[in-house]
Amino acid sequence: MAFSDWITDARNIVFLVIALTMVGGALVVVTTRNVVHSALTLVVVLGGSAALFLMLGAEFVAWAVILVYVGAVVVLFLFGIMITRAPIGRDSVRLDHERRWPPALIALSVFVVMAWSTTLAFGSEQISGGVIRTDAIGDLLFSRYVIPFEAVSFVLLAALIGGIVLARKDPDR
User: What is the CATH number of domain 1-89?
Assistant: First the structure.
């Protein structure tokens, strides 16, 4: 497929805009010195991944990304920053390392290996089976997998109680 054929499809243009926004946001997340700005830019990147899932027809996964990652994890990051009173401005302690190229080289090599192995494994193979709707996932989750679903909820409850116990201040005796 030629690039001129690829770019004429509107879905590819939307994908390109979302992907470039995600790449730009990811660069801001790892390069900004303000941790609050980094967490808020992470919202843009996670929103872009949810938009890509919506383009793929995986609406359940997209809304799970929005609810779990954007709605919970980023809020948890922001609360952690506020509660610990971490220095967030320009006067904060410098945490950068002088040599930035080794981690950048490692990240680039991991990307190249992942892209090469994915392309080698799947090539131009088409995905068959169509789109699975959210109601089918919900029916399966609450009928066949109800016990593991409830077990995970108890594990999350235990983690929440453990976090509260660790965060509370004991009165001086």
Answer: 1.20.120.1200
